[in-house]
Amino acid sequence: MTTLTQTPPTARNALPQPQTIWRLRFDKFRSHRLATWALAVLVLLIFMCLMAWPLSLYLGIDSNKTNLMARFQGPTTLHWLGTDSLGRDVLLRLLYGGQVSIAIGLVATALMSVLGIAIGAFAGFLGGRVDNVLMRITDVLVALPIIPLLIVLGSIDMTKLGLSEAAASSPLFVFLRMVTIIALVDWPTMARIARAGTLQMRDRDYVRAATVSGAGRFYNVFVHVLPNISTQLIVAATLTVGRIILLESTLSFLGFGIVAPTSSWGNMLTNAQELMTSAPLLAVYPGLLIFLTVMSVNFVGDGVRYAFDPRAEKE
Amino acid sequence: MLKYSLSRFAQAVLVVCVMSFLLFVIIGLMPGDPLEAMFDGNPSMTPALMVQMRELYGVDQPLVSRYGNWVVAALHGNLGYSSLYFRPVLAVLWPAMAQTAKLLGLTLLFSVPLAMLLGSLAARKPNGFVDSLIGVFSFAAISLPNFWMSLLLIILLSVNLGWLPASGTPMSDDASFGLTLKHMVLPVLVMVLFHVGPLIRYVRAAMIETLSADFVRTARAKGLPDRMVMTRHALRNALIPMVTALALGFGHLFSGALVIETIFGMFGMGKMIYDAIANVDFNLALIGLLLAIIVVLAANLLADLAYAVLDPRITL
Fold first, then answer.
1. What is the pLDDT of residue A1?
2. What residue spans of chain B are helical by DSSP H?
3. Does pLDDT of A113 surpass 90?
4. Pick from A109, B73, B86, B99: CA 20 to 30 A from residue B168's CA?
5. Searching chain A, which residue's CA lies closest to the CA of residue B130?
6. Beta pairing partners, B164
7. How far B203 CA sits from the closest chain A CA (Å)?
8. Other beta carbons within 10 Å of A8
9. What ipTM did this prediction achieve?
10. To the nearest whole number, what is the mean pLDDT of chain B?
11. Residue A100 above 70 pLDDT?
């Protein structure tokens, strides 16, 4: 009797283990070899950037401190990658700059996603005239040249808007301002995706059933529509991070983004043009890091797209 | 068709009106004010005189009436003076537009055929070796900071090897055609790299879709050589949606031109806008930005209409 009631352990193991969707996606992501490597590179880069503060303690250098007696030094035991035109440590400035660039990429993406999803989902769900007007605005904004717009927004004098001089030039405020103007110009891409997804979901039976049962519009959007289009939104957001890091570095390079003494990969290249004959390596490092980071983020984005979309083909 | 065109045109005009007001407000928020820039460092300027000047030029009026004055003047063809160049805005504008048109024209001349070639090569065998190679190339091109690429090419080709000039325009105005072209090589090269990445992916996607269409199978079945099928049947059809992609990417292309013109010191629209904003030249910045927006909108409008003309299956 006892032998019959007991399920043989071998038979149970022969059945495929139930797997969560996240486990399946993770496996699929791992099968995308380029994306897996890119993720490793990205994690390494982020880890290195986070080591900036411990490293500056270990070496005992302040990355913003200028030393005109020690300009353009080659690599030494103290300055591992040498010093720049003001005698500051290049490695530490690269690592701190990376923190700024990556943080802007992530925070601005979060902000533009919230803005874009809110506008796109409600335009799609409400339909009619609201949708029409919002989408015309989106069409126009998508087409406009972003860099000139960001430059003019970046040159706004905040003291004219009633902010004190000190507050307007504090590093935190410069960071927030950068994130805000990028989100303000870049939300339409996300809004389009959110709207298209919402339109697909809006007339599904379960959404109608919810409406009949008395669900309001907000409830429907949050409970029924957004969770169902979340994969598309996550993919779009991942691919946005790379673009925003590029935008930030371009703006900082042009002098309208992060300004000295705070370093960013973009503004470390601002003076590189004048130093090209004397210290060409100073022009190589920051750009190489931007390129590596953006490329890795884009490959990871492609991997996420591949992992999340059952029909997606590998690229 | 006519009705559609007219309504799209009316929409574009409305957008330009709204944008002109928004830009007027934003540019008014740049540091300083036009009169300060004008009389900066003038020793005979007293505060009392400044107040008089403000009144004279109408700078003390409220925002809306200042905007009204500007619109009336602009519609009469008076776009004001550039405080940076001490010349009328229009006199600064025309040469800059010609320069940018040259740069963008040359870029498109190379980037579009290159994207068509690489995109269709990749689409031939999706996920094959060639496709992966081209895929990595287009990803790299998308991820490449164009200003860094310019710096690297200048260091390598101009400073170290001395093959090409580091500036985008020759020093003297009456330089020979060949010399002008030689100066354009680096900027155009970077612009093509910047532009071609997303375009390749677009052509590839369109080609993969077209290649699975029935008429392609028919063409293959009746024994047409592969090259014939690719060029005459597939590519032609895949090109139609590319018109839209090009138009939508026009703003992106213009953004790139701003960066490239600034690095290579080419006096085009992009560098003009950059200099105007960096030096708080209110009139020039406003007109430059507005013009850039008008050009981009016009390109989009034209692409929409061209779409209907090129593809007889579409009715507007």
1. 47
2. 2-28, 34-39, 47-57, 63-75, 89-124, 129-143, 146-153, 177-211, 214-221, 226-228, 236-248, 250-264, 269-278, 282-310
3. yes
4. B86
5. A315
6. none
7. 14
8. 9
9. 0.85
10. 84
11. yes
Residue of A nearest to B166 (CA): A273
CB contact at 8 A, B141 and B199? no
Contact between A109 and A294 (Cβ < 8 Å): no
pLDDT at residue B242, rounded to an integer: 82
Contact yes or no for B26 and A152 at CB 8 A = yes
B197 has a chain A CB within 8 A of its CB:
no
- Cβ atoms of residues B188 and B110 within 8 Å: yes
Whether residue A145 and residue B254 make contact (CB cut-off 8 A), yes or no, is yes
Task: Write down the pLDDT at residue B308.
Answer: 75
- Nearest chain B residue to A280, by CA: B155
Of A110-119, B206-215, B238-247, the range with the highest mean pLDDT is A110-119
Q: Do the Cβ atoms of B285 and A152 come within 8 Å?
A: yes
The distance of B256 to chain A (nearest Cα, Å) reads: 8
Pairs across A and B, CB distance < 8 A: 137
* Through-space distance between the first and last CA atoms of chain B, rounded to whole angstroms: 5
- Which of B9, B100, B130, B139 best probes binding to A when mutated, by most A CB atoms within 10 angstroms? B139
Task: Identify the residue whose tokens are 């009949």.
Answer: A212
Element housing A198 (H / E): helix A171-202
Q: What is the pLDDT of residue A311?
A: 65
Sort out which chain B residues have CB atoms less than 8 A from A257's CB and list them. none
**Whether A281 contacts A117, CB under 8 Å:** no
Task: Summarize pLDDT for B107-144 with one digit per residue, the tens.
Answer: 999 999 999 999 988 888 888 889 889 989 998 999 99
Check if the beta carbon of residue A192 is closer than 8 Å to that of residue A120.
Answer: yes
Q: Measured between beta carbons, which residues in chain B are less than 8 angstroms from residue A289?
A: none
* Integer angstrom CA distances of residue A117 from A183, A200, A232, A244, B271: 12, 15, 11, 17, 34
For residue B142, give the nearest of A269, A298, A314 by CB distance: A298
* Surface of B (56-85) touching A: CB under 8 A: none
Q: What is the pLDDT of residues B184-228, one digit of tens each?
A: 888 999 999 999 998 998 888 888 888 888 888 888 888 888 888
Separation between Cα atoms, residue B299 and residue A142, nearest integer Å: 13
Q: Mean pLDDT across the stretch A263-275?
A: 81
CB contact under 8 Å between B250 and A143, yes or no, is yes
Q: Do B148 and A286 touch (CB under 8 A)?
A: yes
pTM: 0.86
CB contact under 8 A, A140 and B297: yes
Contacts of B273 (CB under 8 A, 6+ apart): A148, A151, B258, B285, B288, B289, B292
